[in-house]
Amino acid sequence: MLARQLVDHAVIMREPGSGTRAAVEEAYAQAGSRIEPLMSVSDTEAIKRMLLARHALAYLSVLSVKDEIRRAELTTIAVDDLRIERPLHMVWMKGRSLSPSSQAMFSLVVRSD
Question: pTM of this prediction?
Answer without folding.
Answer: 0.73
